[in-house]
Structure formats: C-alpha cells, structure tokens
C-alpha cells in the first residue's frame, strides 16, 4: 500500500543510492583516524575503574529525571566544582555532551534584541542552537576580525540595542587553525558584548595544564 507522506522519503533514498551517496553504517576496521577521542578517555582503564568504584559505592547509574526535579546529586556538584577549579572559572555547568551545551546556550541566553555573530566554520551544534534563538544571527568569514566588527557596527547603525554575542571555536577541528581570541575579546568588550568560545578541541591539548586556550 502506498503512503504518499512516506513515498517522498523513499524517492530521496533511491536518488541517493543511484548517485552512490547513500550513507550506511558499517563495523569499524583497521586503524581509527576519525576519532574525536584524542586523549583515549573512552578506553582509559582509570576511568573504567572509577566507574566501577562509583557503582560499588551506590552512585546511581542514571539520573532518573532532570536535576531541577529532585535529581540533583552531590556528585554532580562535586564534578562541576572540580571543573571550575580546573578551568579557572567561577562556576561550571555540565551537560550530557558539547552538542547539547551549545544548543542550550544559544537557544536561551541571547535575547530577541541581541545579535549573534558566528564564524562561518562554527560547529553545527551552534547552528542548531541559533535556530531556537530569538536573537538575530549573522555569519562572518572565518577568523575575519574586520568582518565581525563591521557586522556589529551595521547592526548598531540599524537600530540594534541589545548585546552582541561573538561565537567562535578556539581550535577549529576541520582545519586545525586557531581563533584570534585576544583580539576578539577586546572587540567584544569594546562593544559591550559577549565572546563565547567553544573549547571542545582544545581542552586537554592546549593551554596551561592542558586546560584549553582560555586557561589562566
């Protein structure tokens, strides 16, 4: 039986197959040059031992609900306190992954009168967060300070009254280059705005004590 609402998807899949562009899952083989696990944390025996010890001591294996609704555990707070200390920050908030963190941040903190200026090579998670934001957003060429400045000035001249948010990565995973953070910070301060730096690919690799590019 034909179901028109699904037929369009089948047509799309057939087209991908015909052009040899249909992606399929396969078992991993050989040496892995695609992993994001630079530090080998996924297979570290120390982490496996720590997890086993935590379970033996009665730490819950799952949240069983949101932290806001009586599921905030002392272990959560201890982890965030340790992260704040490590990164030299006042406080820290953990998410299940970096993708979720970016979506939450950009969909909630920038307000409707604000402007998000994001680097053209920013991670897809930032794009998803921006889709849920009420703020105006504009992309600028990669690592182009002048373009960031111009975007903010054009917005101000057009009546922009909120705060600008500059979205960058300290270390870009695709090209391996770094953002001019000092200059971007000065620009953000000059325009009374915010600089949001994604350190996903710098943490554990760059900075003092491997704390990322922003580590004090």
UniProtKB/TrEMBL annotation:
Molecular function as annotated in GO: 8-amino-7-oxononanoate synthase activity; pyridoxal phosphate binding; transaminase activity
Keywords carried by this UniProt record: Aminotransferase, Pyridoxal phosphate, Transferase
UniProt xrefs under SUPFAM superfamilies: PLP-dependent transferases (SSF53383)
Domain Aminotransferase class I/classII large span(s) in chain numbering: 30-210
GO biological process, one term: biotin biosynthetic process
Required cofactor names: pyridoxal 5'-phosphate
Pfam family of the protein (one): Aminotran_1_2
Protein name per Swiss-Prot or TrEMBL: Aminotransferase class I and II family protein
Organism name: Brucella pseudogrignonensis
């Amino acid at each position: 039986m034909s179901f028109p609402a699904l037929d369009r998807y089948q047509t799309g899949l057939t087209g991908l197959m015909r052009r040899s562009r249909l992606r399929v899952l396969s078992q991993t083989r050989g040496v892995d040059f695609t992993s994001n696990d630079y530090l080998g944390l996924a297979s570290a025996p120390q982490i496996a031992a720590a997890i086993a010890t935590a379970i033996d001591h009665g730490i819950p294996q799952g949240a069983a609900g949101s932290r806001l609704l009586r599921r905030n555990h002392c272990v959560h707070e201890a982890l965030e306190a340790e992260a704040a200390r490590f990164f030299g920050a006042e406080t820290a908030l953990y998410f299940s992954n970096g993708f979720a963190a970016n979506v939450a941040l950009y969909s909630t903190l920038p307000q409707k009168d604000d402007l998000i200026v994001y680097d053209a090579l920013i991670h897809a998670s930032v794009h998803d967060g921006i889709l849920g934001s009420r703020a105006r957003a504009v992309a600028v060429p990669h690592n182009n300070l002048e373009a960031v400045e111009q975007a903010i000035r054009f917005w101000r001249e057009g009546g922009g009254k909120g705060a600008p948010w500059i979205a960058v990565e300290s270390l870009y995973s695709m090209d391996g280059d770094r953002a001019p953070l000092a200059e971007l910070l000065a620009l953000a301060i000059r325009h009374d705005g915010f600089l949001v730096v994604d350190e996903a690919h710098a943490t554990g690799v760059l900075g003092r004590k491997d704390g990322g590019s922003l580590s004090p």
